[in-house]
Design a protein that fits this description.
Pathway: Organic acid metabolism; glycolate biosynthesis; glycolate from 2-phosphoglycolate: step 1/1
CATH topology of the largest domain: Rossmann fold
InterPro entries: HAD-like_hydrolase_sf (IPR050155), HAD-like_sf (IPR036412), HAD_2 (IPR041492), HAD_sf (IPR023214), PGP-like_dom2 (IPR023198)
Radius of gyration: 17 Å
CATH architecture of the largest domain: 3-Layer(aba) Sandwich
Strand order of the largest sheet: 4-3-2-5-6-7
Strand content: 5-15%
Order of helices and strands: EHEHHHHHEHEHEHEHEHE
Helix content: 40-55%
CATH superfamily of the largest domain: HAD superfamily/HAD-like
Structural class: alpha/beta
Family: Belongs to the HAD-like hydrolase superfamily. CbbY/CbbZ/Gph/YieH family.
Largest sheet: 6 strands, parallel
Oligomer: single chain
Number of strands: 8
Enzyme class: hydrolase
Organism: Paraburkholderia sacchari
Length: 234
């Protein structure tokens, strides 16, 4: 797929997903799932099998992995996961290209915000720890830990942003981010370094970039076209 400056040139706002898009937390998510798998007697996941199975709502993802949600409530599993994840998330680095992408968007006159399935309080805490909080106009997380759907939160954020939703770019790393953008009328861009494989993202026919730095380049350059191979990932 291709990402050209023309796709971005008329944009007024850029909204980023957080987990897997700006913060490189895939490795911790895999460890967290396996932390739960060990406790509840489920086969552990690999990095690759996690990316092939991951989906929203998160309860369906756990069911797909073999967790018996009739025997053990999903709320118990997700709280056990988050106890581990939240304790270690400070160790997760930002993806390469985060600061460059934010700066390029600001130079282009765009506002920059976040829409995440993370609990809002934890999201703000982590952004503050990464010295990023003040860079965003709006920071919108969810009010619970169930990570069911971000569409309602996206609609609220669009009301805050105002204007034509087609002038908002939403950058995420999952098919759900693609669905959220389409539901609100935003222009979706998916990055292939997060929680779902490039092959799954490309199958959606969404605009897919190989890494976040490609977005920074496209925001900066007037004539370059950033290309991402139809199926191959190096």
């Amino acid at each position: 797929m291709t990402l050209s400056p023309g796709l971005l040139r008329g944009a007024e706002h850029i909204v980023f997903d957080w987990n897997g898009t700006l913060i490189d937390d895939l490795w911790l998510a895999v460890r967290g799932v396996n932390h739960c798998a060990e406790r509840y007697g489920v086969k552990p996941v690999t990095h690759a099998s996690y990316r092939e199975a991951f989906s929203f709502p998160i309860s369906d993802f756990y069911a797909r992995l073999g967790f018996d949600l009739k025997r053990v409530p999903f709320t118990e599993i997700v709280n056990f996961y988050l106890e581990y994840f939240d304790k270690n998330v400070a160790e997760c680095p930002l993806h390469d290209g985060v600061h460059e992408s934010i700066a390029a968007a600001e130079r282009a006159g765009m506002s920059v915000s976040i829409l995440s399935a993370s609990h809002n309080a934890i999201l703000i805490q982590t952004l503050r720890a990464k010295c990023l909080l003040e860079r965003f106009t709006y920071v919108v997380g969810l009010t619970d830990n169930l990570a069911i759907d971000k569409r309602a939160a996206a609609i609220r954020l669009q009301k805050q942003l105002g204007g034509n939703p087609e002038r908002t770019i939403y950058v995420g790393d999952t098919l759900h981010d693609f669905e959220v953008a389409n539901a609100v009328g935003w222009t979706p861009v998916l990055v292939a370094t997060g929680h779902q494989s490039a092959e799954r993202l490309l199958a959606s026919k969404a605009t897919v970039i190989k890494r976040l730095g490609d977005l920074a380049r496209a925001l900066t350059l007037e004539t370059d076209v950033v290309s991402f191979g139809e199926r191959s990932v190096s």
